[in-house]
Amino acid sequence: MLLVSSYVFYGWWDWRFLSLIAFSTIIDYAVGLRIESTQQQFIKKKWLYLSIGVNLGLLGIFKYFNFFIDSWVTAFSAFGYEMSPYSLRIILPVGISFYTFQTLSYSIDIYRGKLKPTNDFVAFATFVSFFPQLVAGPIERASHLLPQIIKKRIFKYNDFKSGILQIFVGLVRKVIVADAIGGYISSSMSNPWMYNGTTLAISIALFSFQIYCDFAGYSDIAIGTAKLFGIKLNANFKLPYFSTSITEFWRRWHISLSSWLRDYLYIPLGGNRGGTFKLYRNLLLTMLIGGLWHGSAWTFVIWGGLHGIVLSIEKKFNLVHEQYNIIKNISTFVIVSMIWIFFRANSMNDALLIYSKIIFESNQVPFIPNTATLAMVLWGLVMMFLIDSYLYRKNINLEVLGESLPLIKFVTFIAFMMVNLFLFQSNSLNFIYFQF
Amino acid sequence: MKKASILLIFILATFYLFDRATYLFLLKLDSSVFSGQDVGKTNLFFKEKDSVNVIVFGSSRASHHFNNNLLNISSFNMGMDGRKIDFVDALVSTLNRQGQIILVHVDPDEIITKSQGVSNSARVLANYYLRDQSLRSYFNKYQFLDASIIRFAHTYSYNGKALGILKNYFFPQTKLLKNKGYEPLFPTETQKEILTKQYSALNLDTLPNSDITLRETSINYEEHLTNILEKCARNRARLIFFSSPTLVPYNGPSVKGYFDNRQLEYYDYSNYFNYYQPEDWKDLSHLSSIGAEKFSTKLIEEIVLSEEIKY
């Protein structure tokens, strides 16, 4: 039932890409069994390479083909060779970055002997395509999700309660905060040449909240929905803007991706071992690839690279402290926001223009396009801040908030959020991470 | 499962109480709000609509461009940001007074089928759904609103309006009432700076070709236009269409042809300002109060609305 729902859900967007997810599923299912059944290490390796080749190949074709062609043409043009750019302009299948990483981890874990392959094809196909988290994560590991799919699930009142609450918090984040900000800053972010530095600085600070509420909102809805089916997905965000360093930020932001990159890229590259040079090289390489994972543009690569550099600096000068400090918190937020510029800008030129304007034109009066939308943005931010600061002060995750609240508070909170959703929901925009 | 069902019922019951209490609270405040672009202006319209001689309808270009205070008979300017022909249709359907003069601002892009989908800009009147019979019938006919959602959650009729109502209730302004709905624009230095950049970047060669022919006109526009014509005929109202100046040009003569073919009164002032003077503009498609004054004076002078309207 879950498998059928998941395929219907995915096919609703574009049924043609069902074949892609089915192909990836069949390959990794077969590879898993083959790796397990053979004793010879080099044959195991061959099967693993097949899985890596197929998954990264699909990702390469559908996500990076245009990027590499364009970059190739640009590089040649720089040396005076004019090339006619031949590009297929391939459509990016929604969620491909997420489910290929999920299936890759399955094959790698079996190769490493950390996981036994499943014989249950339906369960495996459900693991790959589980609809709440299919299009934008969290990226789940087979060791965590597969056993939950295989075993008989029973309805648990506490899961239901916490799931409902998380769905509503996710909706508030997405349709009240993120979408209102998206509408408010779209013009300044798309046409930075028209606006002064103060306006752009405010816009980029707001974008920091937009992307957080958009992506964390999706994760909350996905995790909450999964709970209604008796499945617990891993937390993907842990109040990242309360971080006091970039290192801590990455422990709290898109946790399923950062832990994936740590386990399947950073550690295999050598991790902290092999001397100072290798440590920083590995860190930088991991973040560059992490950046490229987000999108096929140089702006994403630079975004990842800048995070890698700041992480290296923090490591080198031992700047990571666990204790909360408001100055460090604000500094971290400013650094993260400044790096988001590369993530949000439509082009490298736009990104550089935004930087120069923020640096040289930040003493001017900000332009407020619409006071009514600004009021809604501020209201949304206040709501988000109240929820997040409550979680931070109580030191609990949103995943367990529903269970911990007494009934009256729980019901009042949900009803309050529902009324707010009806009063303040904005014109819905697509989830930002759908494009990745 | 039983416990979860009870919880759901408990949630719905609490939501029902919250929703109705919030709705009644907002309704109470709403009825005393007469300032602000959205709720306040609509309330003013409903207060004035059957007592004034002239009503101006249209988008923000109507509210910011036509200074109806220059008329010497009673009038109200009901132009509102982003509103289209469906909005005009919805409000005209509520008019009761006989013999009024109805001025409708035309944004020619709206008439082109290819560039416009079905317009549902009348959604902004959602807070009247539960309390105005003619608007309710209108919304039910065109299904612009998720009426079932409003019946379930009354607060949805105040979607996007609550903060504006609170602000205008506690900090009311009299500008709208004083200016009879006309909203002059006084651009700030930043806006002037942005306009200069926009204007210098404006490439007239790349503008879309809005070649309007009768065959390409929007069915959506036609339908609302027919409703307006019928209502105005019943009310023996005089209906006048006009286009105001813009820096983004479109094909004026064929728009005129569209109205001429229907024997409707239409005045095209889209290219009224022959050369660009920054003080006349707020942005590429909106006049400043200075530009609006010039345009309104000219429009009233030129068209001579009727015998009883003197400039």
Tell me what the structure shows.
The complex is a heterodimer of chains A (436) and B (311). By secondary structure, chain A is an all-alpha fold. Chain A has 2 domains: 2-150, no CATH class; 158-244 and 323-435, no CATH class. In chain A, 72% of the residues lie in helices and 0% in strands. Chain A is globular. Chain A starts with a helix and ends in a 12-residue tail after the last helix. The relative contact order of chain B is 0.16. Chain B is of the alpha/beta class and 311 residues long. A 5-stranded parallel β-sheet of chain B has the order 2-1-3-4-5. In chain B, strands 6-7 form a two-stranded antiparallel ribbon. Chain B has a domain at 37-125 and 177-303: 3-Layer(aba) Sandwich (Rossmann fold), CATH 3.40.50.1110. Chains A and B meet through α8, α16 and α18 of A and α1, α7 and α9 of B.
Number of domains of chain A: 2
* Secondary-structure-derived class of chain A: mainly alpha
- Provide the succession of SSEs of chain B: HHEHEHEHHHHHHEHEEEH
Distance between the termini of chain A: 27 Å
Return residue spans of chain B where pLDDT drops below 50 for at least 5 consecutive residues.
206-212
SSE-based structural type of chain B: alpha/beta
Quick overview of this protein structure:
Chain A is mainly alpha-helical and 436 residues long. Chain A has helices at residues 2-14, 18-37, 41-78, 96-111, 121-129, 131-134, 142-150, 157-190, 197-228, 246-252, 255-266, 275-294, 298-316, 326-344, 348-360, 371-394, 398-404, 407-424. Chain A is built from 18 helices and no strands.
Map the helices and strands.
The complex is a heterodimer of chains A (436) and B (311).
Chain A: H1 2-14, H2 18-37, H3 41-78, H4 96-111, H5 121-129, H6 131-134, H7 142-150, H8 157-190, H9 197-228, H10 246-252, H11 255-266, H12 275-294, H13 298-316, H14 326-344, H15 348-360, H16 371-394, H17 398-404, H18 407-424
Helix pairs in contact in A: 1-5, 2-3, 2-4, 2-5, 3-4, 5-7, 8-9, 8-16, 8-17, 8-18, 9-14, 9-15, 11-12, 12-13, 13-14, 14-15
Chain B: H1 2-30, H2 39-48, E1 54-58, H3 60-65, E2 75-79, H4 85-92, E3 101-105, H5 133-142, H6 147-152, H7 162-170, H8 175-178, H9 189-201, H10 219-234, E4 238-243, H11 252-261, E5 265-268, E6 281-283, E7 286-287, H12 289-303
Parallel strand pairs in B: 1-2, 1-3, 3-4, 4-5
Antiparallel strand pairs in B: 6-7
Helix pairs in contact in B: 4-10
